[in-house]
Specification:
The protein contains no helices and four strands. The protein is mainly β. Strands 2-1-3-4 form a four-stranded antiparallel sheet, with no helix packed on it. A hairpin with a 6-residue loop joins strand 1 and strand 2.
């Protein structure tokens, strides 16, 4: 994934789903350049969203959802 760096973020939470509104946390990373999703099923379309976490457990809004087919 290509994530934009958020000011004052200490980690990024990446969630995925194949069904509407049933989100699963797939990855938590501290470096937005190291966001690699593994274990996905080829040919399956996943919806993906990300939020940034700051100090004091501050959480950003979830980004706009994007859909992508795993290869």
């Amino acid at each position: 994934l290509e994530l934009q760096v958020a000011a004052n973020a200490w980690c990024y939470v990446i969630q995925i789903t194949t069904a509407s509104n049933v989100w699963t946390t797939a990855l938590v990373v501290t470096n937005p350049h190291d966001a690699i999703l593994t274990g996905l099923t080829p040919g399956t379309v996943y919806a993906i969203r990300v939020c940034a976490m700051g100090s004091g457990n501050q959480e950003s809004e979830w980004c706009d959802t994007v859909s992508h087919m795993s290869t």
